[in-house]
Amino acid sequence: MGATPTVTAEPGGTGSPHPDRPRGARSLLTVASVAVALAAADTYVVVLALTDMMAGAGLGIESLQKGTPIISGFLLGYIAVLPLIGRLADLVSRRKILLACLGIFVIGSLITGIAVELPVMIGGRFFQGLGGGGLVPATLAIVADLWPPGRRGMPLGIVGAVQELGSVLGPLLGAAILLISDWRGIFWMNAVLGVAFMLGVWLIRPEAVATDDRESSTDREAPVDGAARAGAVTAPASAQQRRSRLVTVLAWLTGLVAVGAGSLALIAPESLTTSVEWGEPFVPFGDSTSRVMTPVGLAAAIALVLLVALTARRWLPTLLQADVLGALFIAVALGALVLTFSSADPAQEVLGPWGLWLLPVGGLAVIAFAVRQRTAANPLIARGVVHGKVLPALVVSLLVGTAIVAIVVDVPLLARLTEGTSETEAAFVLVQFLIAVPVGAVIGGLLLKRLGPGLVAAPGLAVTAAALWGMSGWTRGALDEPGMSTILLVVAGFGIGLAIAPVNDAALADSTHSTHGTVSSLVVVSRMVGMVVGLALLTAVGLRRFQQEVNALPDPSDSEALLDAAVVQVQTVFAGAALATLAAALIAVALGWHRVRHTRALS
After folding, report:
1. Tens digits of residue pLDDT in 34-51
2. Helix (H, G, I), strand (E, B), or coil: what is residue 553?
3. Is 601 helix (H, G, I), strand (E, B) or coil?
4. Which parts of the chain have pLDDT scores under 70?
5. At 437, is the secondary structure helix, strand, or coil?
6. d(CA 74, CA 79)
7. What average pLDDT is seen over the chain?
8. I need a surface site. Which of 37, 286, 321, 487 has the fewest CB within 10 A?
9. Burial of 535 from C-beta contacts in 10 A (0-12 / 13-18 / 19+)
10. Contact between residue 337 and residue 529 where contact means Cβ atoms under 8 Å apart
């Protein structure tokens, strides 16, 4: 790589019609952003279909608690591998990461759509989350590649806006599909749209991304160039090509067998399973009733193992370079965190039923990750990545996650404390907040054209802190009067939205091209951790206040007094979220008062 040219955004420049971005950048951003929105929607798209999905797995309404992993499995996949995907996005083409994540998302959708067993359903949702979560850091890194510092505000705002909008539309999208189809239609639609997005990403090749492709290929080939040439002396090129083609053909055949046998095992067509001649491969082993534990399922598993072995030389070196061991440690830590807190009922408990043994496992994984970071030659998070404005950006993102989850969980909870309010009505109260977040995200991105990240994020978060403090004074029935409650919810959402683009912009501005993926993933992870841990801590304090109120009641059986005590818990959570958001506003000042300088490094 030669010298790094600097291109300014002077009008009338040559080359692309917009010198500050390559041709096709907007098209690729549009496709990637809509894909991010779809993945975000899938977090909660199954909320209204959960009972039907449980019935599809042969479980009744009395076993509904067993269905919570359908949601937490998606969250686990979404967050646990984000650091690894972010690192991979720094080693190979961002477009390839987008395509791989979309492919995994499609596979997860198809598995979930045809599942008739709960474990298979949960596995499909995990793969959906795995692919969907990886789209966010890859898209943010692409924005950093295609737009120069000083011009990233609007595209970063768009990515943040569509992500929040997807969360809003998720339950509504699920409800709309259920009007014309059953729950499986949700996942067929996901698969079709995922394939369409893959086609769009494949066809759109902006200049900077094409350069990234060439650089990644060169970087991968350079270490083995000498060995390859030495091999060329001792073995004819045609023989090497024949072996390579043979391995490719075998890999494709094995892949087709894995897909075909796996599909047959999961679908189990009645015409085959009831056939005297063809039904034996579908008979479960031993006492099992699972469609997977059958000869045809075993054939699919063997084919999948062979496929991994045949293709390992193509992807294993990159995984090792990305520090897959460190990624495993952090995945276990994040997974333990998600499963501990996402399985808990926020209104009644802090830790889920597995928390007492998951948290120690997560703690050991954190220690192992820290040791790995210090000892690995190429650690998962490269040394020196978290520096400058990256650190305050991560802290602000974590605190913002705490504020978001406090509102998302406790506003509907307060609404339900009013007699006669249904769960659906309580959810619609929350929409006022959720709609304001993407609006604020877009406006925050626009403001970055003239203002520094700190000047946009800090006031927005301060306004949100004030709104949350006002919400901490809400009493039972406060949401029945839409005037002031609506204003506070909209202001809170708008202020949080204002901070989304500045946080990403400041973090990416203080990172290099080779670390954009890692930094983007860390911003997303910190926000998700803030949501999970923040809710747990605020709920712990709130439950303590609730218990104190109950102990002080003259008549603990008074239902109205108990409801009032529950309101105190909600008020405590809002007050705690207000303090967290105020701290975020103060820290956001460190993101910088001056607008990011407009330069562009093409290579």
Report:
1. 998 888 888 777 766 777
2. coil
3. strand
4. 1-22, 47-48, 59-68, 207-237, 342-353, 355, 418-427, 556-558, 596-603
5. helix
6. 9
7. 81
8. 286
9. buried
10. yes
